[in-house]
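Page header: ASSEMBLY MODEL / two components / 220 residues total.
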Amino acid sequence: EVQLVESGGAVVQPGGSLRLSCAASGFSFSDYWMTWVRQAPGKGLEWVANIKKDGSEENYVDSVRGRFTISRDNAKKSVFLQMESLRVEDTAIYYCARGQRSFDFWGQGTLVTAS
Amino acid sequence: IQMTQSPSFVSASIGDRVTIACRANQDISSWLAWYQQKPGKAPKLLIYVAASLQSGVPSRFSGSGSGTDFTLTINSLQPEDFAIYYCQQGRSPPFTFGQGTKVEL
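Prediction written out in full:
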């Protein structure tokens, strides 16, 4: 069974940092692009970043480029999102999802509050 | 790439046929996915590459379109289908979502 479990969400002050983790199981992790998607309270979905199977390529939405860094550890079957200089508008549930152009499995999400 | 869904809200009854439109502001070929999200839950993939039904999704869901205009159709709406639906383009990053369409009773 495919599972994605996010962790690391917390309440942080604006300007602070946080590192999110997503542990994968039930599939060959190194065969898939991985993606982070976020959802602000009561709002829609926003694609944040993705990373290639071997970690050699990363893409970001403009609003987080230069502040967030996506990475992965294929040996540990995990993907990470390092978030720096957090802003109030980064407050959201952060989901990790499997896939590059569409996302077939999602985690339950982890809440990040910048306040 | 900007994605625009219409309508934002749909009021429907059990057994109705519901159609949701999604428009891209540039050609995205068939790189379009549809998701369903229920309150407090993660989104669920319904349709990928515009018209392919994700494994396990009921056949009453179907997708069509290419280029800039796409449609999600739900035939014979069931009680479990009341949710928010999002389209998402996979043509080029950032892989943007539409603003969502809420299907309500």
